[in-house]
Amino acid sequence: MTPLTQSPAWKALQNHHRDIQGLHLRDLFAQDPGRGEAMACEAAGLYLDYSKNRATARTLELLMALARERGVAERIAAMFRGDRINVTEDRAVLHVALRAPRTAVIEVDGRDVVPGVHAVLDRMAAFAGGIRSGARKGFTGEAIRAVVNIGIGGSDLGPAMAYEALRAYSARDLQFRFVSNVDATDFTEAVRDLDPRTTLFVISSKTFTTQETMANARSARAWCLEALKDEAAVASHFVAVSTDAARVAAFGIDTANMFGFWDWVGGRYSMDSAIGLSTMIAIGPERYREFLDGFHAMDEHFRTAPFERNLPVLLGMLGVWYADFFGAGTVAVLPYDHYLRRFPAYLQQLTMESNGKSVTLEGARVDYATGPVFWGEPGTNGQHSFYQLIHQGTHLIPCDFIAFANSLNPLGGHHAMLLSNVLAQTEALAFGKTPEAVAAEGTPAWLAPHRTFEGNRPSNVILAPRLTPAVLGSLVALYEHVVFTQGAVWNLNPFDQWGVELGKELSRRILPELESPGEPELSHDSSTNALIRRLRAAAKS
Ligand code: F6P
């Protein structure tokens, strides 16, 4: 394939960018009174208004041409077919199979994986039902009252985000905690008010080797056994979610208490695998199925809709437009629903561990920008913090606003206020406030530049009637496929994460140096050596 930046579609976009970069959203809206409705699209319970982007009909035509030229359709087909598209790890990428209905057939190496997916879901449902009803007891015969998920990265961010997002649907008589950090404060604070007799630990780790998770799991076992004083208690208070039965058994968890998944599920794509066990216990198996159905509806849309009406392709290609042609290094994700407060953190792993790469599938260094930095906070908090920079700073920051027509907690006029803020922000970002308008308000000339808003700041608005399990599933799948689309255009492998390995390797070397009783021989750089010495000395004081 022609290198990306040499391709005809890329070059056409470069020329087009030169032509339209000076165009203001004010002009685009003035030229086409129907723009707000024309540049919108609806699928799988989500409405996307992408009209406030610095794009014309021609821009979208060229972006879709780029997607076609770079083989996005072929790559979508390859993923759904179970091809080993994660080439650096020689694995299929089939998170879409996790939410497929029972009747679907999806094969890896000629074997249908759907029956296995549903067998695990059925076991999870039985287990979750037992915890929720109180039928499944702890070691002393008392019902489980608290569920602590121990995991990190994809084995934490998805479940933690989903629990927060779906808290309104959760069993309120159960407590849920999420421990991820190897900093003992995380575990200590999470369990300080819990009773070991009524606490269940879900040890979630795809590999069952992750340092942080294994350390927290060992501390959890010690905490449990200190109170229950019998190794046999582990069977009642620990379950594992992993792909590695041998390691689970070696840790001391009976594999009868293990929920499996497969190497074709990437960590950051695993929240709807057995990694979602805590989510299922929280919201119950029926709601969990609705959650999976939301994912599946977006999968089907992504697989079948023409690019021009395909939400993930549209959002993904607009992201490419800003990252590569406007030089935008970041994207702000701004959920106007407090239940989605962990959504930006969840998206950071999904997007940045996936497309934070600088070599192509063939191993060549890229000469274009790839995955941007994702960040955000729930509205309206961000408005009183960093929005100043988005409105008047020197960086172009495309924003995704997420909002729901109905609140799950209607209270007086709060929700209308919340929604009025979403709409006000997108309007202000797009249209700004001209020097003339500022002057007409009687602002003195010296102050006018400070009170002028350039506008022309792009944003998307994603709307749904209300936050439900299905809508959350659809929203997550939307971004999973945005990442996929962009990874295909950038010719990256969004499914490996070699970039996290070097730090892990070095920490394994540094740990014994920090712990050594004698003076260790240090062979790092002078900064690292000095820091190790200083920490060792301070630890003794
Ligand atoms: O270090 C990165 C990573 O491999 C993530 O991709 C993954 O989600 C996380 O660690 C946790 O891995 P595991 O589920 O195997 O413990």
Sequence-ordered SSE layout with sheet pairings:
Layout: H1 8-20, H2 25-31, H3 35-38, E1 40-43, E2 46-49, H4 57-69, H5 72-81, H6 95-98, E3 107-108, E4 111-112, H7 114-133, E5 146-150, H8 157-165, E6 175-179, H9 184-191, E7 199-204, H10 211-228, H11 233-237, E8 238-242, H12 245-251, E9 258-260, H13 277-283, H14 285-304, H15 311-325, E10 330-335, H16 343-355, E11 373-375, H17 387-392, E12 399-404, H18 414-431, H19 435-440, H20 448-451, E13 459-464, H21 469-489, H22 501-515, H23 526-540
Parallel strand pairs: 5-6, 5-7, 7-8, 8-9, 10-11, 10-12, 12-13
Antiparallel strand pairs: 1-2, 2-13, 3-4
Helix pairs in contact: 1-4, 4-15, 7-13, 8-13, 8-16, 13-14, 14-21, 15-21, 16-21, 22-23
The protein binds 6-O-phosphono-beta-D-fructofuranose (F6P).
Number of helices: 23
- Measured between the Cα atoms of the first and last residue, the distance is 62 Å
- What is Rg? 25 Å
Q: Which residues sit in consecutive blocks of at least 5 with pLDDT less than 50?
A: none
Shape: globular
Ligand kinds:
6-O-phosphono-beta-D-fructofuranose
> Which class do the helix and strand fractions yield?
alpha/beta
Strand content: 5-15%
Summarize model confidence as the mean pLDDT: 97
Number of strands: 13
**How is the largest sheet built, in terms of strand order?**
1-2-13-12-10-11
Largest sheet: 6 strands, mixed
GO cellular component, one term: cytosol
GO molecular function, one term: monosaccharide binding
Catalytic activity: alpha-D-glucose 6-phosphate = beta-D-fructose 6-phosphate
Keywords: Cytoplasm, Gluconeogenesis, Glycolysis, Isomerase
